Structures are given as C-alpha cells and as structure tokens.
Amino acid sequence: MSVYARALLSSCGCRSAPVACFIGSLFRMLEDDGNDHLIAWSASGDTFLVKNVEVFAAELLPQYFKHSNFSSLSRQLCFCEYATLGSPERGRCVPAPAVV
C-alpha cells in the first residue's frame, strides 16, 4: 500500500463515522484491481484517476455508495480536503495543498 493510499484511508480532516465510511468505501474501490479500467491510482500513487466518468458513475459508484452521482462523490472529496485536477469530468483527484 502506497503512502498516499494510507493517507487517503487515515487523514481525512474530520473524524465522523459517515466520513470514515466514505473514505473506507473509496479506498476499497481504489484497491480492487477489478476496477482499474474505471478508477485507479496514478503510477506515482499520489493521485487517482477516474477513466470514464459516465460509466464509473453508472456502474461502479452504486456498488460502493448509495448513489450514482459523480458530483456527490466530488463534493465529498472536497469535504475531505481532496481536490479535483482539471475539469471534474476528468476525475483526477489529489490531496489539497496544506493551507498555511
């Protein structure tokens, strides 16, 4: 498991049970090699990429969450201090830079 994978699992800025559940579900989705055609860690392991947002939202999200809405996933990531790079449709997410 990469350092960034461990960070995703353990470093969400808040500690409420629903957030922990969200992070756990996202982590399981990313770690499942069967999902690599839709979502996967980058080669460096510090970001992840959603490769086909429409198919990802329709087919994979409902398997891990109670919805198929990519915007909801994106909002939850922002709540957990992750950022989307490029357009949200590209789905590349990284830890947001620390605020000084």
How is this structure best described in words?
With 100 residues, the chain is of the alpha+beta class. The chain has a single domain (3-94), classed as Winged helix-like DNA-binding domain superfamily/Winged helix DNA-binding domain (Arc Repressor Mutant, subunit A, Orthogonal Bundle), CATH 1.10.10. Helix content is 45%, strand content 14%. It has four helices and four strands, in the order H-H-E-E-H-H-E-E. The chain has helices at residues 3-10, 17-31, 53-64, 70-79, and strands spanning 39-41, 48-50, 82-85, 92-95. The protein has a four-stranded antiparallel β-sheet. A hairpin with a 6-residue loop joins strand 1 (39-41) and strand 2. Helix 1 packs antiparallel against helix 2.
List the helices and strands and how they pair.
Blueprint lengths: L2 H8 L6 H15 L7 E3 L6 E3 L2 H12 L5 H10 L2 E4 L6 E4 L5
Antiparallel strand pairs: 1-2, 2-4, 3-4
